[in-house]
Design a protein that fits this description.
26% helix; ten-stranded mixed β-sheet; 206 residues; Sua5-like_dom; 10 strands
């Protein structure tokens, strides 16, 4: 059964955050809130966690996983980014955007798009998410908590606990979070491409 953690949305309890991060380091898969909607997350090198996310969401190998980063310096360790893209991404973070970029060698191969060798990265504007990745000290490997054959992501902690009680080790509830996934911008080609329109305003990339 999943452990249920009630976390203050503005002042996350350090002890609770530390407990969750310890479980992530021990191989746990967690459901946690972001500024767009809930996500599934595990440690970067957690092969079993990656496989479990694929199973829960029924994902194929072309799915772009997202590295949820604490800040821009951390993000830049995991993707290659030129000056023009740097300025565009920097201006939109933190926020409800995911950026697809060429990955560096720091990213495990099983996370890469098989042909493009890209990965998603984002810096969320959410106090609890920021507390988690700050305590973890590395990006949190994530995917939107959108179940197969459902159009809307799950947004309530208690419902996630009911639905995924035997699929995840922990559910973090900090009250209302977003109901839309991130806006996804692919910067791996010659021009930015809006792959998904979501919570972030896409007009700045059009």
């Amino acid at each position: 059964m999943a452990k249920y953690f009630d976390v203050h949305p503005e002042n996350p309890q350090p002890r609770t955050i530390s407990t969750v991060v310890d479980s992530i380091r021990s191989g746990a898969l967690v459901a946690y809130p972001t500024d767009s909607c809930y996500a599934l997350g595990c440690q970067l090198g957690n092969r079993e966690g990656i496989a479990r996310i694929r199973t829960i969401r029924n994902l194929d190998d072309r799915h772009h996983f997202t590295l949820v980063c604490h800040d821009f310096a951390q993000l830049a360790q995991f993707v290659r980014i030129d000056n023009d893209v740097f300025r565009a991404v920097k201006a939109a973070t933190p926020g409800s955007y995911t950026f697809i970029l060429p990955a560096t060698k720091e990213v495990p191969r099983q996370l890469l798009h098989p042909k493009k060798k890209t990965v998603g990265v984002r810096i969320p504007d959410h106090v609890v998410t920021q507390a988690l990745v700050a305590e973890l000290g590395e990006p949190l490997l994530s995917s939107t908590l959108l179940l197969p054959d459902e159009e809307e992501p799950l947004t309530q902690g208690w419902e996630i606990k009911e639905r995924l009680d035997h699929e995840v080790e922990a559910v973090i509830d900090s009250g209302e979070c977003g109901t839309e996934p991130t806006t996804v911008i692919d910067f791996s080609g010659d021009e930015p491409e809006i792959v998904r329109r979501g919570a972030g305003d896409p007009s700045r990339f059009e």
